[in-house]
Specification:
It is built from six helices and 16 strands. The protein is an alpha+beta fold. It has two domains: 151 residues, Roll (Nuclear Transport Factor 2, Chain: A); 168 residues, Multidrug-efflux Transporter 1 Regulator Bmrr, Chain A, CATH 3.20.80. It is elongated, with a radius of gyration of 23 Å.
């Protein structure tokens, strides 16, 4: 039976939606759906047969713990479809070794794959990957190699024993990434630098100060709340990161075992507020070192400029600072992030 072009393309897209879920699992993708001669190319690898493509997948599985998320797929030519995806890879060679205490990088790539289809047999005969973070997409791209190396040499740490908010990375550019955060519950307290003037600004929607301002009092208030200073005397788990915003508030994320605000133990003081942060899009720029007010402000300004360059529209002037590590962590190993809410964003 000969399929019309429209039916063939629709069938191929439905096939990829299911088949790509097995890209890195034990089942693997269906190699029979690729021509023996298939052009596969990304900025740092190139093969001209299906066996080479399968070898590349197997190599990634040996060296890393890779994951793949398909965001969307659409027709982009007469016999061509394009996928948009995120791929994350955690180095496995150092797991369980002392090295992982100091070096445990996670690599993230986002981009598109242009998939050509042979009209005579319906099989894929072309697979070309394009990364969002680079300009030079041609093999061999030294820019792409530098992007990989930069992520491989990142020594900032995320505490492994603490829960973190759930999010998906939709696009990763050279200087920032766009994330979709799931809803989360937070406990909130006013920072020490949030005096009467700052409170007035915050309630009127204006800037209440630097998210990197003095916050020892707020931190201690929130720590007391989650470690048993609540109506139920319940001890909750510490989470990471600690958020603070430009309206003068610090936030601890409530551990995920609590599903809604009503299930969280009530604070014993009006200094602590428990609320839900709805899901949303954020532009995020990461940096190490000390997140002091000047450094954080410079990072926020640079992020807004990068967003404007990429056509990513900020949702107002609000922004947050996320700090993942305790003060005893050496500055070079600290993970800090500036987050700006996103109003308009194009996935494609």
């Amino acid at each position: 039976m000969v399929l019309t072009r429209g039916v063939l393309l629709q069938e191929r897209m439905e096939f990829l939606k299911e088949d790509l879920t097995h890209l890195f699992d034990e089942q693997g993708i269906d190699q029979s759906q690729y021509d023996d001669v298939v052009e596969f190319r990304d900025p740092i690898t190139s093969y001209n047969e299906a066996k080479g493509y399968m070898f590349n997948i197997a190599m990634l599985k040996r060296v890393f713990a890779p994951s793949f998320q398909l965001h969307d797929i659409k027709q982009t030519g007469d016999y061509e479809v394009t996928t948009r995806w995120t791929m994350a890879m955690q180095v496995t060679l150092t797991r369980g070794t002392p090295i992982s205490r100091f070096w445990d990088p996670k690599l993230v790539f986002t981009g598109t794959s242009v998939m050509g289809i042979n009209p005579s047999n319906g099989k894929f005969n072309r697979h070309l990957d394009y990364w969002d973070a680079i300009d030079n997409q041609q093999y061999f791209s030294w820019e792409a190699f530098g992007h990989v190396l930069q992520q491989m040499t990142d020594i900032s740490r995320t505490p492994k024993d603490l829960p973190t908010p759930s999010y998906s990375i939709l696009k990763k550019f050279k200087d920032f990434e766009v994330r979709r955060y799931d809803r989360m519950l937070v406990a909130e307290a006013d920072m020490d630098s949030r005096g009467p003037a700052a409170v007035t600004c915050a309630t009127s929607g204006q800037d209440g100060g630097s998210p990197a301002g003095k916050g020892d009092g707020a931190f201690n208030t929130l720590a007391k709340f989650i470690f048993g200073g609540n109506a139920a005397n319940a001890r909750m788990r510490m989470t990471t990161p600690v958020f603070s915003d430009n309206r003068g508030a610090m936030q601890f994320v409530i551990e995920p075992s609590y599903q809604d605000v009503s299930s969280v133990p009530s604070p014993q003081t009006d200094s602590v507020r428990v609320r839900e942060r709805s899901e949303g899009l954020y532009a995020v720029a990461s940096f190490s070192g000390v997140a002091d007010p000047q450094n954080a402000a410079e990072r926020e300004s640079a992020l807004r400029q990068a967003m404007q360059k990429r056509g990513t529209v900020a949702d107002g002037s609000d922004w947050l600072l996320a700090r993942y590590n305790d003060p005893s962590t050496r500055p070079a190993f600290r993970r800090n992030e500036v987050l700006i809410p996103v109003k308009e964003f194009e996935l494609w």
